[in-house]
Protein backbone atom coordinates (compact mmCIF):
# COMPACT_ATOMS: atom_id res chain seq x y z
CA UNK A 1 0.00 0.00 0.00
CA UNK A 2 1.35 3.38 -0.99
CA UNK A 3 0.88 6.72 0.71
CA UNK A 4 -2.19 7.37 -1.44
CA UNK A 5 -4.22 4.90 0.61
CA UNK A 6 -5.23 5.06 4.23
CA UNK A 7 -6.64 1.93 5.76
CA UNK A 8 -9.60 2.08 8.11
CA UNK A 9 -10.13 -0.99 10.27
CA UNK A 10 -13.53 -1.94 11.63
CA UNK A 11 -14.79 -4.99 13.46
CA UNK A 12 -15.68 -6.81 10.27
CA UNK A 13 -14.58 -4.63 7.39
CA UNK A 14 -11.47 -3.19 5.89
CA UNK A 15 -12.05 -0.11 3.77
CA UNK A 16 -9.69 2.14 1.95
CA UNK A 17 -10.54 5.75 2.64
CA UNK A 18 -11.24 6.39 -1.04
CA UNK A 19 -13.75 3.53 -1.07
CA UNK A 20 -15.41 5.06 1.99
CA UNK A 21 -15.64 8.40 0.19
CA UNK A 22 -17.20 6.68 -2.82
CA UNK A 23 -19.78 5.03 -0.57
CA UNK A 24 -20.58 8.40 1.04
CA UNK A 25 -21.06 10.04 -2.36
CA UNK A 26 -23.32 7.19 -3.48
CA UNK A 27 -25.42 7.57 -0.33
CA UNK A 28 -25.73 11.34 -0.86
CA UNK A 29 -26.79 10.80 -4.48
CA UNK A 30 -29.35 8.21 -3.41
CA UNK A 31 -30.82 10.58 -0.82
CA UNK A 32 -31.00 13.48 -3.29
CA UNK A 33 -32.54 11.35 -6.02
CA UNK A 34 -34.92 9.04 -4.18
CA UNK A 35 -35.90 10.58 -0.83
CA UNK A 36 -39.59 11.58 -1.18
CA UNK A 37 -39.19 15.16 0.07
CA UNK A 38 -41.65 16.68 -2.42
CA UNK A 39 -44.33 14.11 -1.59
CA UNK A 40 -43.80 14.67 2.12
CA UNK A 41 -44.16 18.45 1.68
CA UNK A 42 -47.33 18.07 -0.39
CA UNK A 43 -48.79 15.69 2.17
CA UNK A 44 -47.98 18.06 5.05
CA UNK A 45 -49.46 21.05 3.21
CA UNK A 46 -52.69 19.28 2.27
CA UNK A 47 -53.05 18.07 5.82
CA UNK A 48 -52.57 21.38 7.61
CA UNK A 49 -53.35 24.38 5.39
CA UNK A 50 -56.59 26.28 5.53
CA UNK A 51 -57.24 28.92 2.87
CA UNK A 52 -56.60 31.85 5.26
CA UNK A 53 -53.29 30.34 6.40
CA UNK A 54 -51.71 30.06 2.95
CA UNK A 55 -49.91 33.44 2.98
CA UNK A 56 -48.66 32.97 6.55
CA UNK A 57 -47.41 29.49 5.64
CA UNK A 58 -45.67 30.81 2.50
CA UNK A 59 -43.82 33.43 4.59
CA UNK A 60 -42.80 30.78 7.12
CA UNK A 61 -41.43 28.61 4.32
CA UNK A 62 -39.46 31.52 2.84
CA UNK A 63 -37.91 32.28 6.24
CA UNK A 64 -37.09 28.61 6.74
CA UNK A 65 -35.35 28.51 3.36
CA UNK A 66 -33.18 31.47 4.37
CA UNK A 67 -32.13 29.84 7.65
CA UNK A 68 -31.45 26.49 5.95
CA UNK A 69 -29.31 28.19 3.29
CA UNK A 70 -27.22 29.79 6.04
CA UNK A 71 -26.73 26.38 7.68
CA UNK A 72 -25.87 24.74 4.34
CA UNK A 73 -23.31 27.49 3.69
CA UNK A 74 -21.64 26.65 7.02
CA UNK A 75 -21.56 22.94 6.21
CA UNK A 76 -20.19 23.66 2.72
CA UNK A 77 -17.42 25.75 4.30
CA UNK A 78 -16.35 22.77 6.44
CA UNK A 79 -12.70 21.93 5.89
CA UNK A 80 -12.42 18.77 7.97
CA UNK A 81 -9.43 16.63 6.96
CA UNK A 82 -10.35 13.93 4.42
CA UNK A 83 -8.00 11.16 3.29
CA UNK A 84 -5.03 12.85 4.88
CA UNK A 85 -5.66 16.19 3.19
CA UNK A 86 -5.55 19.36 5.28
CA UNK A 87 -7.58 21.98 3.38
CA UNK A 88 -7.17 25.59 4.52
CA UNK A 89 -9.67 26.52 7.24
CA UNK A 90 -12.13 29.29 6.36
CA UNK A 91 -14.54 29.06 9.31
CA UNK A 92 -13.97 30.35 12.83
CA UNK A 93 -11.69 27.87 14.58
CA UNK A 94 -14.29 26.96 17.23
CA UNK A 95 -16.84 26.06 14.53
CA UNK A 96 -14.29 24.12 12.47
CA UNK A 97 -13.19 22.15 15.53
CA UNK A 98 -16.77 21.08 16.19
CA UNK A 99 -17.36 20.08 12.56
CA UNK A 100 -14.07 18.15 12.49
CA UNK A 101 -15.00 16.38 15.72
CA UNK A 102 -18.38 15.43 14.26
CA UNK A 103 -16.76 14.17 11.05
CA UNK A 104 -14.39 11.95 13.03
CA UNK A 105 -17.13 10.61 15.32
CA UNK A 106 -19.41 9.93 12.36
CA UNK A 107 -16.62 8.27 10.37
CA UNK A 108 -15.44 6.10 13.27
CA UNK A 109 -19.02 5.27 14.27
CA UNK A 110 -19.75 4.08 10.74
CA UNK A 111 -16.99 1.50 10.87
CA UNK A 112 -17.31 0.39 14.48
CA UNK A 113 -21.09 0.24 14.71
Automatic annotation (TrEMBL):
The main location is nucleus
Instruction: Provide one Gene Ontology cellular component.
Output: nucleus
Q: Which UniProt keywords apply?
A: DNA-binding, Nucleus, Transcription, Transcription regulation
In the record, biological process GO terms are:
regulation of cell population proliferation
What are the subcellular locations of this protein?
A: Nucleus
- In its keyword annotation, does this UniProt entry include Nucleus? yes
Instruction: List each copy of the Transcription factor AP-2 C-terminal domain by range.
Output: 16-105
Domain of life according to the entry: Eukaryota
Give the matching InterPro entries.
TF_AP2, TF_AP2_C
- Return the similarity comment: Belongs to the AP-2 family.
What's the name of the protein?
TF_AP-2 domain-containing protein
Amino acid sequence: MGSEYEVVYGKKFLFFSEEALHMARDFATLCEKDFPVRHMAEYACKKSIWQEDIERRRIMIEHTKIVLKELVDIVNADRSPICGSQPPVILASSMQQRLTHFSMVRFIGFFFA
